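Internal ticket #5521
Category: modeling
Description: The requester needs a full-assembly model to guide mutagenesis choices. All entity lines are attached below as received. Residue total reported by intake: 227.
Assigned to: D.W.
Attached entities:
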Amino acid sequence: GNSVTQMEGPVTLSEEAFLTINCTYTATGYPSLFWYVQYPGEGLQLLLKATKADDKGSNKGFEATYRKETTSFHLEKGSVQVSDSAVYFCALTYNTDKLIFGTGTRLQVFP
Amino acid sequence: SQTIHQWPATLVQPVGSPLSLECTVEGTSNPNLYWYRQAAGRGLQLLFYSVGIGQISSEVPQNLSASRPQDRQFILSSKKLLLSDSGFYLCAWTPGALVWGNQPQHFGDGTRLSIL
């Protein structure tokens, strides 16, 4: 079946460091891919998405590229801020709007 | 603009008590509605989804049930709560499906449920 695998956290970085959170997927066809962010005590917010191979989603300095050949959708940011501290979820949909989530990766950024 | 509301924000209930969590969406018609649970230290699991009034699909067997009495109202219930029902419950919606598979979901702020 379809699934999403994320790197385990927590990821701990200093402010202005480079961020990568790995995400790979398994799907029978060509899913749509998403990154959601959950700030402490809040619900989830869509961060970015990509709906076909080689698409790049971007928002708030974050980027992720849909790589069909490696079935990956890694999240990157060139310079993280303390305010980026949150839990990040990679997710996919395939022929439905039902999301299949990864387990989430907690990011902690220190000044 | 569309908004989604969940309440209560936090809830502490004893084992064996009933549960009712409510979610409403404003500013849209015929949305698809979803209930997710996030257990401590774990990812999100889809519990129920609904594509219309009275239409509920359950994704996993459990102690919970869902109902959709009105187009923009989605209720999560239990007759007798278990300790394992503790978690963070999130409601979400997408526009009624014309194109499946690339609609981002819009989430409420969640309900943190603690069972004692």
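Resolution: model delivered.
Comment from assignee: The mean pLDDT of chain A is 93.
Ticket closed.
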